[in-house]
Amino acid sequence: MTAPVYNFAYLDEQTKRMIRRAILKAIAIPGYQVPFASREMPMPYGWGTGGVQVTASILGPDDVLKVIDQGSDDTTNAVSIRKFFSKTASVRTTTATNEATVIQTRHRIPETPLTEHQVLVYQVPIPEPLRFLEPRETETRRMHALSEYGLMHVKLYEDIARHGHIATTYAYPVKVAERYVMDPSPIPKFDNPKLSDCPALQLFGAGREKRIYAIPPYTKVVSLDFEDHPFEPYRHDAQCELCGATDSYLDEVITDDAGNRMFVCSDTDYCDKRRAAMDGGQQATATMGHGP
Amino acid sequence: MTGIDENPLLTVEELTKWYGRRLGCRDVSFDLYEGEVMAVVGESGSGKSTLLQLLSGQMEPSGGRIFYRLRDGSTADVWQMSEPMRRFLFRTDWGYVHQDAQLGLRMGISAGGNVGERLMAVGWRNYAAIRESALDWLNRVEIDEARIDDTPRSYSGGMRQRLQIARNLVTAPRLIFMDEPTGGLDVSVQARLLDLLRRLVADLNIAAIVVTHDLAVARLLSNRIMVMKAGEVIETGLTDQVLDDPCEPYTQLLVSSILPA
Amino acid sequence: MRLLDVCNVAKTFTMHLQGGMQLPILRGLGFSVAPGECVVLTGPSGAGKSSILKLIFGNYRCDEGRILVRDGEADVDVATAPPRQILSLRRRRLGYVTQFLRAVPRVAALDIVADALTDTPRERARGLAAVMLARFNVPERLWSLPPATFSGGEQQRINLARGFLPETPVLLLDEPTASLDAANRDAVIGLVRERKRQGAAIVAIVHDEAVRAAIADTSIDVTRFATAA
């Protein structure tokens, strides 16, 4: 059995061209959802096909790729996608954020600040922020075209009426470059401030819905809110038990059957780097599942 | 002439709509001034609903023109203006009350959200102010304040209709289109709604065009009336004139067909 | 300077539902009313007296002729004026007490009367309406009730209060004292005299000889204008 031969990064060159055109258009109109001819990929819809197609189209032989899922490099999906590109593009892969040139992510923005030499590719399930309020595509397209975003604030109003505060904790809608309202993909609202004025190029790909959108570097991105209920990034009441960080997004981990839990950084690379820095002096006293 | 020196709010010239070879309505012309309520009456197929769709900018006419006087005093041709402008007018200066309240409301959004939507659409960004305005309007249409966070799914037909009215009035429109506003409601509910409409229209000096097949509704709400049949305007004039002294055969037929209570 | 000038008015009803049968009512109707004058229309029942008032008010449309109502410096011809103008005239210049009260249902008597003052703030209008209702001896306990359940005389007094309140320069009265007792008849006479003193022009249909004698300056027998059947 001879091994299959893939075109670089799996997609044929014509497809990559089409996707790059969509990407250029998206960059020219920040936050606007550009339709593209999404291809059938070797993983089903819902497994990151949009992100994979965007990454495949921009990857070059000298790129260094990092793939994370909920901040972690070692979940099944992150591993699969990393292997996919390693096999079809033979690019160097890494878990270190600062070494990567292309970072594909599902539902998180890395804690380590990004640079102008990097591209962040988001996996997007539902690109349309108004979808659940206005099911008609014809209407939502009009609303974006005419900047009719009253309905978006109605959703936030409903949250406050129902919960006393804006209850949306992820996929929190934003306004890009003071024009288009965008769904930043299901990242926690904790990450929203990182979207704005970011030195890196941010690309968003939705495979099933066949849309690509972008935030060019150093673009103003504002989270929607009310004057008297301003956007507040989520603040944890805890710190990471592995590295002591107080400024990163934390995952809650159940450690045993007795219901004990601990908080650790969601961004595994960030956490590892911090622990390595601490280890440079002394041993870290990680308390995995023991003690009060 | 004292008191009659303002320009009309709405001027309609020979408005016509063909659906292929079928006539929707033909050569409708009239002026409407601020605070005037005009009823358009007729039976099914008269063209009255088509007319309302044309006038409210929801359907493009085959012929004729509609001029609307904007708040700054200038007059605009409704079908020459840009679509964003027309949609903006529809959301702010105009109101549209559907016969079926479900078409005019977002059933999955709370009453407060429904009333507040137009405000948010024109840039209101203070939650407390929006909510207060919504409460005020719920009061004015006689909906219990406590229902502000309920969705219209839990409302009765009459309440839904009143909510629809509140939703339309919140941006102080100058012209309201109503399509059989009391159709399908129980008689006592109809009566209450008509009283409310009458008072609100008078208090707020709103001009209105009310499509109805019910002459009693026309008499109660309007001071002018237009009788239509098969797409043509049969007779037009003051409501009491046309209903008490009908000249055209069809109008006489219509007036004489009402069953006395 | 006449406040009301009716010139050569003709009216025929065409009953299309009865095969186009014509019912002529009036022809060559003409008279005028000066400020402070009260013209009383006389004639048998069915002669067209109420129709004349309706024509003046614009409730009926006339086939020929002109109906001129003074408005400031100019005359408005009710026969040809656009609806907006007639509505304006009715608000400010032309009052009308119909033969029977036709009131919007479910509205309190006080508000029905107060609504006649279209340009006055609500509270003040209700205050003035209260005074007028008192003048017609309508008991206060009835003021907050809709008149649909009132007696004929009570309804008539609401109607009168509504017609007399706006102090219009021209006033049309259709049987204002029907169904009234002596005290209220006197109230009507008193108000008509007051209006005349204020310079109003009044056209009235009155059956009661005594009342007629008390208010009429001119009598016109409308059978003069009846058309040959």
Task: Compile the SSE list and pairings.
The complex is a heterotrimer of chains A (292), B (261) and C (229).
Chain A: H1 13-28, E1 34-35, H2 49-58, E2 64-69, H3 76-89, E3 92-93, E4 102-106, E5 119-123, H4 137-145, H5 150-163, E6 174-176, E7 180-182, H6 192-195, E8 201-206, E9 211-215, E10 221-223, E11 250-254, E12 261-265, H7 268-279
Parallel strand pairs in A: 2-3, 2-4, 4-5, 5-8
Antiparallel strand pairs in A: 1-9, 6-7, 6-10, 8-9, 11-12
Helix pairs in contact in A: 1-2
Chain B: E1 10-19, E2 22-32, E3 37-41, H1 48-55, E4 63-69, E5 75-77, H2 83-92, E6 94-97, H3 101-104, H4 111-121, H5 127-140, H6 157-169, E7 175-179, H7 187-204, E8 207-212, H8 215-221, E9 224-229, E10 232-238, H9 239-244, H10 249-256
Parallel strand pairs in B: 3-8, 3-9, 6-7, 7-8
Antiparallel strand pairs in B: 1-2, 1-4, 4-5, 9-10
Helix pairs in contact in B: 4-5, 4-6, 5-6, 6-7
Chain C: E1 4-15, E2 21-33, E3 38-42, H1 49-57, E4 64-71, E5 74-77, H2 83-92, E6 94-97, H3 109-114, H4 122-135, H5 152-164, E7 170-174, H6 182-197, E8 201-205, H7 209-215, E9 218-221
Parallel strand pairs in C: 3-8, 3-9, 6-7, 7-8
Antiparallel strand pairs in C: 1-2, 1-4, 4-5
Short descriptors:
heterotrimer, A: 292 residues, alpha/beta, seven-stranded mixed β-sheet, three-stranded antiparallel β-sheet, disordered C terminus, B: 261 residues, Rossmann fold, six-stranded mixed β-sheet, four-stranded antiparallel β-sheet, 10 helices, 38% helix, globular
- Low-confidence stretches of chain B at least 5 residues in length (pLDDT < 50)? none
Number of domains of chain B: 1
Class per helix and strand makeup of chain A: alpha/beta
Q: What's the number of helices of chain A? A: 7
3D structure, described in words:
The complex is a heterotrimer of chains A (292), B (261) and C (229). With 292 residues, chain A is of the alpha/beta class. Chain A has 7 helices and 12 strands. In chain A, helix 1 (13-28) crosses helix 2 (49-58). Chain A is globular and about 65 Å long. Chain B has 261 residues and is of the alpha/beta class. Chain B has one domain (10-257): 3-Layer(aba) Sandwich (Rossmann fold). Chain B contains 10 helices and 10 strands. Chain B has helices at residues 48-55, 83-92, 101-104, 111-121, 127-140, 157-169, 187-204, 215-221, 239-244, 249-256; strands spanning 10-19, 22-32, 37-41, 63-69, 75-77, 94-97, 175-179, 207-212, 224-229, 232-238. In chain B, the strands form 2 sheets. In chain B, strands 6-7-8-3-9-10 form a 6-stranded mixed sheet, sandwiched between helices. In chain B, helix 7 (187-204) links the parallel strand 7 (175-179) and strand 8 (207-212). In chain B, 48% of the residues are buried. The model of chain B has no long low-confidence stretch (mean pLDDT 91). With 229 residues, chain C is an alpha/beta fold. Chain C has a single domain, classed as P-loop containing nucleotide triphosphate hydrolases (Rossmann fold), CATH 3.40.50.300. Chain C has helices spanning 49-57, 83-92, 109-114, 122-135, 152-164, 182-197, 209-215, and strands at 4-15, 21-33, 38-42, 64-71, 74-77, 94-97, 170-174, 201-205, 218-221. In chain C, a hairpin with a 2-residue loop joins strand 4 (64-71) and strand 5 (74-77). Chain C starts with a strand and ends in an 8-residue tail after the last strand. Classes of the chains: A alpha/beta (292), B alpha/beta (261), C alpha/beta (229). Chains in contact: A-B, B-C.
